[in-house]
Write a structure and sequence with these properties.
The structure holds 2 protein chains of 2 kinds. In chain A, 35% of the residues lie in helices and 26% in strands. By secondary structure, chain A is an alpha/beta fold. In chain A, strand 9 and strand 10 form a beta hairpin. In chain A, helix 5 packs parallel to helix 6 and helix 7 crosses helix 8. Chain B starts with 5 loop residues before the first helix and ends with a helix. Chain B has one domain. By secondary structure, chain B is an all-alpha fold. Chain B is built from 8 helices and no strands. The chains are: A alpha/beta, B mainly alpha.
């Protein structure tokens, strides 16, 4: 079976500084992959290239059979992105934000669909409130509703837990589990190894622009993952 | 493949900008206050006779429109940068050109709205009617040219720390032919000189607009590319 995401010889350099070196990486449909690595290991660069926001220096990327950057529009249509930034307009209401992004994704939405999307992330009663009045956790949940609105095959999360408190993180855990159970393929960059061990089905640890470890997470504890992380990167998690 | 048609994307971006502005009045509010203060200060500073007023009013109009437009351009693009919204637009299955045209139309509407406020106020303050069809045409063309260049350059400068100061510095040399043509055309229209004497400036302005619109449309994808 062809992987949903596939990179071959993927290289990215900023000037003379290589960030990713000949990366061979594949994600099957339905997988939940945690992308781990210390700051500067190339996680965000890889994410940006998979979304078509950045072009590779060399190598190929295919998402859902479409090639980047040649068929970037087709790739973007099947990707939903949640980042540590909310990617929302705080002078618009939650409902207006969803309606705007639905039209950008050429998705027909009516009030019923928007209400369902808001209810799914626990914001059913806050649809007509301005996003600037939302807490960080509520904004992140709305961000997930935005990312899911066009029913993408792939969900990309780049450090989604940044700035969330315990309750916000727990709510996000539930939404991620739901999205995975609903059949979305998920790729999540995070520094939180315990959370990765609980949520993801596979971990990929990047170090110095190459994949140091690619391991299934069936029955793997946070401590075991932290040990693998330390072995590959030479530093403790979060370093 | 569910890529979004060009005009649907443009319309969505324009509608979003108008909706956000109707709610917050962050752009037109700041631009309007700046513009009104500027023409008031000019009117106090230039206590001139009627003839002298005719000569300077076109310059006052353009200085005010241009600097309030720069203020608006900075804020409009800063709004896209604040929560990573420019990335959100670039992540959608729409052409980069649609993002540019959408932002351009929004900025054009906001600057024209300020111009619409300025015309009657300036006419009253300076005792010279600016409701001349040629002045209006020059304003439509001049503002289009200026916001065309400004939208492209503001997208670049908004990603820097000194964006407020940087935009006018990088913009003025590029927009100089547009400003020159607009000022000459509107001065001619208000001076009572024969149309043949200054209509060439309007034609040059129209041609510059066409060139800049096409050029900026094709350059925008390079500006937003990492």
């Amino acid at each position: 079976m062809t992987p949903l995401i596939e990179t071959k010889g993927l290289t990215k350099a900023f000037g003379l500084m290589p960030v990713l070196r000949k990366l061979e990486f594949a994600v099957e449909r339905g997988e939940f992959v945690a992308l781990l690595g210390h700051n500067g290991s190339g996680k965000s660069t890889l994410m940006r290239m998979l979304c078509g926001l950045s072009k590779p220096t060399a190598g190929t990327i295919r998402v859902g059979g479409w090639e980047l950057p040649k068929e970037a529009d087709a790739v973007r249509a099947q990707i939903g992105v949640v980042s540590h930034k909310t990617l929302l307009y705080d002078t618009l209401t939650a409902r207006e934000n969803l309606r705007f992004f639905a039209s950008l994704y050429n998705t027909t939405v009516n009030d019923v669909k928007i209400n369902a999307a808001l209810t799914r992330v626990g914001l059913g009663k806050r649809g007509d409130d301005l996003v600037r009045g939302f807490s960080r956790g509520m904004q992140q949940r709305l961000s997930i509703a935005r990312a899911l609105l066009h029913e993408p095959d792939v969900l990309i999360f780049d450090e989604p837990y940044t700035g969330l408190d315990q309750d916000g993180s727990a709510a996000l855990d539930e939404l991620l589990k739901d999205a995975h159970q609903a059949g979305h393929t998920i790729l999540m960059a995070t520094h939180d190894l315990d959370r990765a061990a609980v949520l993801a089905t596979r971990a990929v640890i990047l170090s110095r622009g190459v994949i140091g470890v690619d391991m299934p997470l069936d029955g793997v504890t946070g401590a075991a993952l932290a040990e693998a992380y330390r072995r590959v990167t030479g530093v403790a998690a979060g370093g | 493949m569910k890529t979004t048609p060009f005009f649907k994307a443009v319309l969505a971006i324009v509608r979003k900008d108008l909706q956000a502005e109707m709610r917050g009045r962050e752009l037109v509010g700041a631009m309007g206050v700046f513009a009104l203060l500027a023409i008031l200060i000019f009117s106090f500073a230039l206590e001139l006779d009627r003839e002298a007023r005719n000569e300077v009013i076109s310059g006052v109009l353009w200085v005010t429109v241009i600097f309030s437009s720069i203020l608006g351009l900075n804020r409009s693009l800063a709004m896209e940068r604040d929560q990573g919204n420019l990335d959100a637009l670039l992540l959608a299955p729409i052409g980069r050109g649609a993002v540019y045209v959408g932002k351009l139309i929004g900025n054009y509407i906001f600057t024209l709205a300020i111009s619409a406020i300025l015309l009657p106020v300036m006419s009253a303050l300076y005792g010279v009617s600016l409701f001349n069809p040629y002045v209006l045409l020059t304003l439509l063309l001049g503002v289009l040219g200026f916001t065309t260049v400004g939208t492209l350059l503001a997208t670049m400068t908004v990603q820097t720390r000194a964006r407020e100061a940087l935009l006018p510095i990088v913009m003025m040399p590029v927009a100089l032919p547009i400003i020159l043509s607009a000022v000459r055309a509107s001065t001619g229209a208000l001076s009572g000189a024969s149309v043949d004497d200054w209509i060439g400036w309007v034609q040059i302005l129209g041609a510059l607009d066409a060139i800049f619109v096409v050029m900026c449309f094709f350059l925008f994808p390079f500006v937003v590319e990492e």
